[in-house]
Amino acid sequence: MFNRKWLLTAFVVMLLGVTMAPSTGAAAMPSYNRTMHLTFNRPVALPGVALGSGTYIFELADPMNAWNVVHVLSNDRSRVYYTGFTRVVDRPEGLRSNQAISFFEAAPNKAQPIRVWWPQDDSTGREFIYR
């Protein structure tokens, strides 16, 4: 007892359902957290914290909503050393594409302060805000 009108209606409803279905976006969203493992052979500093020599994880806290908040964690993610706001700055012309960090000058016998973190393959960096 199937007729063409019923089949056509069922086909249109199915087609609309497939094309109008909401997307979760999980598969379509690439990873923008720009996670980098950086190793320092001497002490360095961020606003309010000094880091000893070693390997640390630098990443954007929430790249879709808080793209200017940076986390700095231990290499095993067991400790958060820094979470703070940064300024987004453009990568200067001529800066090597593999340069991950820019520093401020340090006072003698002090940890060298990190000025900007340059996420890999990004045209912008995150400048730390010192008071």
Give the SSE order as H and E letters. HEEEEEEEEE
The overall pLDDT average reads: 81
Q: What count of structural domains?
A: 1
**Number of E-type strands:** 9
Largest sheet: 9 strands, mixed
Enumerate the spans where pLDDT stays under 50 for 5 or more consecutive residues: 15-31
- What coarse outline follows from CA principal-axis ratios? elongated
The class by helix and strand makeup works out as: mainly beta
User: Percent of residues in beta strands?
Assistant: 35-45%
How much helix, percentage-wise, in residues? 10-25%
Cα Rg? 24 Å
Q: What is the number of helical segments per DSSP (H or I, 4+ residues)?
A: 1
N→C terminal distance? 79 Å
Gist?
By secondary structure, the chain is mainly β. The chain has one helix spanning 4-20; strands spanning 36-40, 44-46, 49-51, 54-62, 66-74, 80-90, 101-103, 112-117, 124-128. Strands 1, 2, 3, 4, 5, 6, 7, 8 and 9 form a nine-stranded mixed sheet that branches.
